[in-house]
Amino acid sequence: MSRPQEPHRPLFHFGNPFRMISPKSSQLSPRLQAQLNAFEETLGDRLRKLIPQDKNEILSLTWMKSAMESLCESHTDIKTLITNLELPVTDWDEKWIDVYLDISVKLLDICIAFSSEITRLNQGHLLIQCVLHNLESDPSKKFVRARATLDSWRQHIGSKNPRLHNCGSILNSLVESLDLPKVKNSAKGKVLMRAMYGVKVQTVFICSVFAAAFSGSSKNLLHLHISDAMLWAQAYSDLQTCINGEIKDLFLHGNFTVLKELEAVDLIAKKLFPMVEDGLEANEVEAFQNSLTDLGKQAGKFSHGLDVLAKEVDVFFKIVLTGRDALLGNLRMSDTMTDPVLGINVEQQQVVR
User: Fold this and answer.
1) CB neighbour list of residue 203: distance below 8 Å, 6 or more residues apart
2) What are the UniProt keywords, alphabetically (predicted)?
3) For the chain, which terminus, N or C, has the lower number of CB atoms within 10 Å?
C-alpha cells in the first residue's frame, strides 16, 4: 500500500466508542488486561493532578504548561504501549492508520496556531518593556512616547489572531474522530484502541481549553460525556467541570482574557495609563513608582511563563511529528518488504537508499 500519497478518508461520526472497543463477546488475557488497566490508571492520575487546588490557578501559564506537559507524557505512553503490545504496524487495520494520520495533521495545525499566539503575546511583552524603559529612565521627558506605547499595547492585546480562527472546526473534527474503527479478532488491537481513545479525549480537552484561553471565547470549550467503564472517567469529569466552569464564569464577568499573568499585566497598565496621559500630581509619585515596580515584576512573570509554555508546545509538536514520521516510515518499510518486484530484503533496500 502507499499510504503517504493517499488523501485522508473522512472521519467517522461520533458514537459510542466503548461499544466498538469492547463488544460483549471480547475477553482480554490477564496480561493484556493488566496493561490496559495500568495505562488507564496512570491517565486518571494524570488528569487528577491537573485539577487545581485553588481556582486562581486555572489558566495561569504555569497550569497551562503542566497541562501540555501531561499531554506529552500521555502521547509518549501510547508509543510505549505499542512497543509493549508487540503490535507491528503491518498488523494495523487501514482504518486505524487513516484516523491516526488525519488526527496528527490536525494536532500539528493546532500546535502551529498556539505557537503563533504565544509569539504574538511575546510581542506585546516587548511593548511593555519599552514602556518601562521610557518611564524608568526619564519619565518627565518620555511620557508622550510611553503613552503611545501603552496605547499600542492595549490595541495589540485586544486584537485577534487569525491563526486561531480554524481551531473550532479542527476541534469539532477531532471530536468526531473519537468514534473508533471496529476492531476484529485482535485483543491487542482492542487494548490499543481503548488506550488511544483516552489519550484523544485528554488531547481534545486540553486543546479546547487552550483555544478558549487564546481566542478569548468560551465557544471553543467542549463538553464530553465519558462512559463510566473507563477507569479515568471520574477524574476526567471532575477536571472538565472544574476548568470549563471557571472559564465560562470569567467570560460571563466580562474578562477580556482568562490568562492570569496577562490579566495582571493589563490591570497595572490600565492604572498607569491615566497617570501617563494626564501627568503626575504630587501625591501620585509614590503610587506611580510602585506601579512601575509591579509592572516590571508581573511582566517578568508573564514573559517567563510564555517562554516555558512555548517550549512545551514545541515538545508536543515534535512528539506528534516524530510519531507520524515513524508510522509513515514503517509503512514504507512494510511496502519494501512485501513488494515481490523488488526482490531485495530490508537491509539491501536501506543500502540502496
Assistant:
1) 71, 74, 75, 107, 174
2) Membrane, Transmembrane, Transmembrane helix
3) C
